[in-house]
Design goal:
By secondary structure, the chain is mainly beta. The chain has a single domain, classed as lipopolysaccharide transport protein A fold (Sandwich), CATH 2.60.450.10. Helix content is 14%, strand content 51%. It is built from 2 helices and 12 strands. Strands 1, 2, 3, 4, 5, 6, 7, 8, 9, 10, 11 and 12 form a 12-stranded antiparallel beta sheet that branches. The mean pLDDT is 84.
Length: 187
């Protein structure tokens, strides 16, 4: 009959088949290709989403019409959100009719998801040498084309000084709404 080592060779494939549940997971892990990274092979999420740019001029256009310009010596991304952090900001808000509004601030950030610009630290807004506005903090709402401040505002014109706590300024209509302990000084 079947006697000898040569006739026991058929037991090897049988043992491999029956033992697959024990060693199969390790073999599959070893032979699997590396995971594919759509953002770039070998880079972590933190490395792909953070950057710093020096000497930046940033524009916001809407339907081919320029709405906002920001000049900053340093632009970097916020590690926890999509915000762009800005330092020593100079910029302009463009209007279709009327003079452009020029602004400066010590720091701020731009939120591209809501098209919002937040400025802080000695914010100054100038309108063609006729009007100068100063405030500690100011926000620009790009979708509504509105500027607002809740940190106290002083407005200087040629023969008029106005101060108040809250400001809402509609860039399209040119209407100012100043509220909260408003003071007028006419020279």
């Amino acid at each position: 009959m079947m006697a000898g080592a040569r006739n026991l060779l058929w037991l090897i494939p049988l043992l491999l088949l029956l033992g697959w549940p024990l060693y199969g997971a390790g073999v599959r892990w070893f032979l699997a290709p590396p995971p594919w990274d759509e953002g770039g092979a070998g880079r972590s999420e933190e490395q792909t989403q953070r950057f710093i740019l020096d000497g930046v001029r940033f524009y916001q256009d809407e339907a081919g019409v320029r709405r906002l310009r920001i000049d900053t010596p340093s632009l970097r991304t916020d590690p926890q959100s999509d915000k762009l952090l800005l330092a020593a900001i100079d910029g302009a808000l463009f209007r279709e009719e009327g003079d452009d509004l020029l602004f400066t601030a010590a720091r701020g950030y731009y939120d591209p998801s809501g098209e919002m610009l937040y400025l802080e630290g000695d914010v100054r807004l100038n309108e063609a040498e006729r009007l100068r506005l100063t405030t500690p903090a100011l926000s620009y709402h790009g979708r509504q084309r509105r500027v607002s401040s809740r940190a106290g505002v002083e407005i200087f014109a040629e023969e008029l000084t106005v101060s108040g706590r809250n400001l809402d300024y509609d860039l399209e209509s040119g209407d100012y709404i100043l509220a909260g302990n408003v003071h007028f000084v006419v020279r």
